[in-house]
Amino acid sequence: MKHLVFVFSLSFLFLNCQSETSQTFTQMNTYTQLEKSINRTDTIVLGGGCFWCLEAVYDELEGIVDVVSGYADGTTMNPTYEEVCSGKTGHAEVVQIRFDSSRIPLEQILEMFWKCHDPTTINRQGADVGTQYRSIILYNNDAQKRIAEYSKQTVQREFENDIVTAIQPLKTFFYAEEYHQNYFAKNPEAPYCVFVIQPKLEKVKRTKK
Predict the structure, then answer these.
(1) Per-residue pLDDT reduced to its tens digit, 167-205
(2) Pair 134, 92: CB distance under 8 Å
(3) What span, in angstroms and rounded, lies between the C-alpha atoms of 143 and 30?
(4) Do β-strands 92-100 and 128-129 pair in parallel, antiparallel, or remain unpaired?
């Protein structure tokens, strides 16, 4: 009887150990996949008019992990929307785009950038006028800088007027207030969404066909 108990105990320990080993392997595999996914993601900050528009456009693209509205390229810390709109802080309304570079390269993101706004107007996009609406690309490294400059140079032939988009290193990105995040998705019936953002999205979809 003692022999049977001993054998049963060993079997239980073996099965338990095997189960824990399997769980550990599964967890390690999951962590490895997550690490690979994280290593493929990159970010770029773009400004081209109201950030509500840019956010809505890039939310439609496959390979985009998330889009956050915010402020950058100004002179003060943690500006509010009202301060940015006053033009006194020097910030631009921008979106920080996090993307999976194995699914959508930066070159493709910039192709959409040139299509979804007018990069030839200074401090203006349609009825939105002010320095906060300037066209700007804020890069994180030299590789992004080279890609942005080449993209700008290549697309110039498609515009009659000179592209005025600034290409500069990103210093600090400040998150915009919560009510600005996912604005179009949360407020599809708002007048600005109906008369400005929705037509822009439809135009972008036509250019993708």
Answers:
(1) 999 999 999 999 999 999 999 999 999 999 999 999 888
(2) yes
(3) 30
(4) unpaired
Q: Which of 50, 53, 116, 193 is catalytic?
A: 50
| 109 within 8 A of 151, measured Cβ to Cβ | no
Q: Give the residue from 78, 83, 84 showing the smallest Cα distance to 133.
A: 84
Judge whether 50 counts as a catalytic residue.
Answer: yes
Distance between CA atoms of 102 and 37, rounded to whole angstroms?
A: 9
Delineate the domains of the chain, giving CATH numbers in brackets.
39-208 (3.30.1060.10)
- Reported as a single tens digit per residue, the pLDDT across 18-43 is 444 445 444 545 444 444 444 689 99
Q: How, if at all, do strands 64-72 and 92-100 pair?
A: antiparallel
